[in-house]
From TrEMBL:
<dbReference type="Pfam" id="PF00890">
    <property type="entry name" value="FAD_binding_2"/>
</dbReference>
<feature type="domain" description="FAD-dependent oxidoreductase 2 FAD-binding">
    <location>
        <begin position="7"/>
        <end position="462"/>
    </location>
</feature>
<keyword id="KW-0560">Oxidoreductase</keyword>
<protein>
    <submittedName>
        <fullName>FAD-binding dehydrogenase</fullName>
    </submittedName>
</protein>
<dbReference type="InterPro" id="IPR027477">
    <property type="entry name" value="Succ_DH/fumarate_Rdtase_cat_sf"/>
</dbReference>
<keyword id="KW-0274">FAD</keyword>
<dbReference type="InterPro" id="IPR050315">
    <property type="entry name" value="FAD-oxidoreductase_2"/>
</dbReference>
<dbReference type="InterPro" id="IPR003953">
    <property type="entry name" value="FAD-dep_OxRdtase_2_FAD-bd"/>
</dbReference>
<keyword id="KW-0285">Flavoprotein</keyword>
<dbReference type="InterPro" id="IPR036188">
    <property type="entry name" value="FAD/NAD-bd_sf"/>
</dbReference>
Length: 495
């Protein structure tokens, strides 16, 4: 077996891992970065648009009146006190300085208004990567910096095991060719991004796993969680899915918006669950996390029901509803469109989607019920109640705003878009202390081990909160905390 030694091994080069490496690099502590993929960067590079922070330099300049007290109390309360208070506090207190640090890393962000219609009036906490392509390029430049300083960056090499005996002896890695490598090390930081790529762990935690459209980092298969758990780390808690919106397909990205089927997915039309009942105020579409949670809550699948008249209206007219992804795709300074249509290709797009099975078409509601295996009586009841709400411009059950009660469902042909709950990953894993060390069931930390980013439990009670940029902000800050703590421990001669 090929073997060598270092001080610290960092597993994963996404937001948390690259941040940990940057700290080690700045403090001249030798490290090896292991990355399973053929390039650096996980969901933090290919996916995330921004990070949450309080008290950043820019926020201070702009006199943002939302600081530690508001954020700490807000998040604690929001999560019904199911939070790791020490960790949350440490994250929040470092989140502002993290913004300056991101600029030093070559990944600058600026404070921007929320990209979600539901959060336009929220305090200014969202710091956005203004040039997404540049972010990706600059991320890719970091390994050269690290290696020039004498560190190792090993691509297509995954951590697979640990040698541990009352302290870390070595990290065992495997490269693409299947060869094992033994890296004798004093500390390891697991930044491998949670477990959404592990079918086994997903199925064990989420009953709707098969229905989910997984847009997360699929190389994240729970390595750090499993290896620390094997050594006694406490993994007892409620699983937390990173649900985020919905999509009409298991294979396409709903954010690309190249089909009118996706456009209609992104609007508050009539939604029915698998029992043919309405289940939510469809206005939730304007809050990605809550939309995803609502879909997760009905077992990951729901239907958008419309009739031919509605489809034709979208084909010919400009409709006074905003596509929920509109603001995500506006560059800074661009004005978002608050209407949709006309959509000249809508009929072709729907006909195509009927062929692929993403949309079900039928002449009658009875036929829709048969094709989707829905109880017909519930379907007619739901449609009648909704039509009544549209007619009266009042939804006295789910309270959808009158301005969104635009389309009744009257005459065939009818169309049902089959929607899947989309996910960006998982948000639970290992219980940690304030230093991002995994703790045992008795609360004591596991020596020499650190675990960060999406691998960590303790920030969310049951789902992703409506605080934009929290997951990614935490990933960068937790990587930084873990590296700082590892360095401190090394300097104290703890090994
Ligand atoms: C499409 C999308 C959009 C998003 N948008 C936002 C947003 O706007 N704001 C926000 O806050 N969050 C957002 N997120 C979530 C955010 O990206 C994650 O919370 C964050 O990246 C988590 O950081 P991480 O370092 O834990 O994992 P990642 O950034 O995913 O990195 C994990 C890395 O570990 C590697 N790895 C896995 N297993 C191993 C192994 N055994 N050995 C070596 N390497 C391994 C992976 O290949 C990957 O490179 C988004 C996610 C997605 C998918």
């Amino acid at each position: 077996m090929n073997s060598f030694s270092t001080d610290v091994v960092v597993v994963g080069s996404g937001s948390a891992g690259i941040s940990a490496c940057f700290e080690l690099y700045q403090k001249h502590v030798p490290f090896v970065l292991l990355e399973k993929g053929n390039k650096v960067g996980g969901a933090g590079k290919f996916g995330a648009h921004g990070v949450f922070a309080i008290n950043s330099t820019e926020q201070k300049k702009r006199h943002v009146n939302y600081g530690y007290r508001e954020a700490f109390n807000g998040l604690t309360d929001y999560n019904h006190f199911f939070v790791n208070g020490e960790l949350l506090a440490r994250f929040l207190k470092k989140s502002g300085a993290n913004i300056d640090r991101l600029a030093e890393m070559g990944l600058p962000v600026t404070v921007e208004q929320s990209e979600q219609k539901a959060h336009l009036n929220d305090p200014l906490v969202y710091h956005k990567f203004n040039n997404f392509k540049e972010k990706m390029t600059n991320w890719d430049k970091l390994p050269d910096k690290f290696t020039a300083a004498g560190n190792k960056v090993m691509l297509e090499t995954a951590a697979v095991d640990l040698e541990y005996d009352n302290g870390l002896k070595a990290v065992i890695a495997k490269n693409k060719a299947g060869a094992e490598i033994r890296i004798a090390a004093k500390k390891v930081i697991f930044a491998d991004g949670g477990y959404c790529g592990s079918q086994e762990m997903m199925t064990a935690n989420f009953s709707d796993t098969k229905a989910l459209l997984n847009l997360g980092e699929r190389k994240s298969t729970g390595t750090g969680i499993r290896l620390t758990h094997k050594l006694g780390a406490d993994c007892r808690h409620r699983p937390v899915l990173f649900a985020h919106g919905g999509a009409p397909s298991m294979s396409i990205n709903p954010m690309k918006r190249d089909s009118a089927v996706e456009t209609l997915t992104n609007l508050p039309l009539l939604w029915l669950d698998q029992t043919a009942n309405r289940f939510v105020n469809e206005d939730v579409v304007y809050d990605f996390a809550m939309w995803g949670n609502a879909a997760h809550n009905v077992n990951g699948i729901y239907y958008v029901l419309l009739d031919q008249k509605t489809l034709d209206t979208f084909k010919q007219k400009e409709v006074n509803l905003e596509d929920t992804f509109e603001r995500q795709f506006c560059d800074v300074g661009q004005t978002p469109r608050t209407t949709v249509g006309p959509l000249p290709n809508i009929q072709t797009d729907f006909d195509e989607a009927v062929k692929t099975g993403e949309v079900v078409k039928a002449d009658t509601l009875e036929e829709i019920a048969q094709k989707l295996q829905l109880p017909y009586s519930s379907l007619t009841r739901s449609v009648n109640a909704y039509n009544q709400a549209v007619k009266q411009k009042e939804d006295d059950t789910f309270l959808k705003p009158a301005a969104e009660l635009l389309f009744d469902v009257q005459e065939g042909p009818f169309y049902a878009i089959i929607e899947h709950c989309a996910i960006l990953g998982t948000l639970d894993g290992v219980n940690v202390d304030r230093n991002c060390q995994p703790v045992k069931e008795d609360g004591t930390p596991l020596k020499d081990l650190y675990i960060v980013g999406n691998n960590v439990n303790g920030l969310y009670s049951d789902g992703y909160p409506s605080y934009e940029g929290i997951a990614n902000g935490f990933a960068f800050v937790s990587g930084w905390i873990a590296a700082e703590e590892a360095i401190k421990s090394l300097n104290q001669g703890e090994k």
